[in-house]
DNA sequence: AGAAGGACCAGTGGTCCGTA
DNA sequence: AGAAGGACCAGTGGTCCGTA
């Protein structure tokens, strides 16, 4: 059987065929060939992180269709029953994100925000593949990035994609899609101030609430109107913030009869613990 | 507290305010006022079926908002601790459906197909109510008849609506929506032949597969294009049948190069055990 | 036998919290 | 401390099968 792609380096990226290609692995399953995240088009050898794994996912009798078969992931490498190099070693976590400007490459053991947004594009490509397969088989066709898509991404070797991470930053990606200028400005401002990723992430909510205000507070409609964003579930907290702000706007409008509603979004942004 | 509507008679129907009104109940919780299913506009007193219940759902402290509170259904009638009339009696099942012509009232302990289709309209109204509440609260808004909608229907007193039943006949309702003439003709033919509901139900698949053929075999698109049908999930078996027929059509087309594909739907309708 | 529906089950959306 | 993600959980879609 052919060797299955275990996963791809987190630095892999913008080059041609950005997803679903199989990386070459050595006998121990280590990723020895990778495409590195590059901002300006020049490949730099950066952090080919030693990856440790709990389990080997190299299996025999691998089919070219990995949507419906059972779990092979518990198989141990057929070659060596208990090699210390293979067993008992965990897969390393992805490097944490840092706030980077558009086009900026993260230095050290970090990942930048262009890379974060690229993960969303990769998920979209995995969804398209799942949709193609589903249509071909006459099965239910997902319209969103579902558990099935995350599972497919993992089986395709993109082990660096996972649901909690993608859900965590959806609204940041939403701002990037809906108002790239505003998103870029926010990134530059927060980088300049030396803010961490968490506070940048929090700051992404407010401009989105303003956008929702300009669309009658219908954040679902805002998401659905954008082709790359419509495949993502609206995050609960963003939905709640829009609802709170709408209520504030309604209250303000009824207190000040005849006043236009402004969409300036200055009132209750901090009430919800964003 | 006000008494909660326990459920409505299955014969209740086409009159004004067809759903979500509270029926009056006597001390034992029996439905004593009902609206009866009427075909021609004249109310006939028909089968005010004695209903037996396992549990009383009459509760005190009932709110006017029954979407998120806990289950009150296990409460026993506060009045009498163990009245034999109330305890230990099951709710009677709905009368089975029989094949009726359009406009025909079912006789005896039976329900007709107009009534069946009316249940789908009621579900749509319950969905609309759930959507209104969700939007008002800024929560996720269902686009389909989900478990939440069935739960809401039950809490609103429509205990005769349940998921297995509605899912079972969805494709029959689909034919009624998409080609009422064909649906009516099928009903008349199967009634004339004295067929039971099960065989009528089976026969509803084929004309739907033909409709899908005329729309590029995209049964999801067919459902979604119809406003009353789009809120229902495409049944698995209908989806599978369309897929099989499409494959047959493709095979026939490649065997007979240059031949137009006909959508006559005569080939494999019996292969799948419909 | 034909049919209604309670109740179960595998896989979902959502995110917490033990981990590094 | 800030952050990544395995793993859990309540409620879902789907329908079987014990019931009448």
UniProtKB/TrEMBL annotation, chains A, B:
Reported function: Probable transcription factor.
Biased composition (Basic residues): 44-56
Domain of life the protein comes from: Eukaryota
Protein family (similarity comment): Belongs to the FLO/LFY family.
Lineage: Eukaryota, Viridiplantae, Streptophyta, Embryophyta, Tracheophyta
Residues of the full protein shown: 145 to 418 of 418
GO biological process: maintenance of meristem identity; regulation of DNA-templated transcription
Compartments (UniProt record): Nucleus
Protein name from the UniProt record: Floricaula/leafy-like transcription factor
Biased composition (Acidic residues): 62-76
Keywords: Activator, Developmental protein, DNA-binding, Nucleus, Transcription, Transcription regulation
Species of origin: Brassica carinata
Disordered as annotated region, ranges: 40-87
Record GO terms (molecular function): DNA binding
Domain Floricaula/leafy DNA-binding C-terminal: from-to ranges: 86-249
Ranges of biased composition (kind: Gly residues): 77-86
Gene Ontology CC entries for this record: nucleus
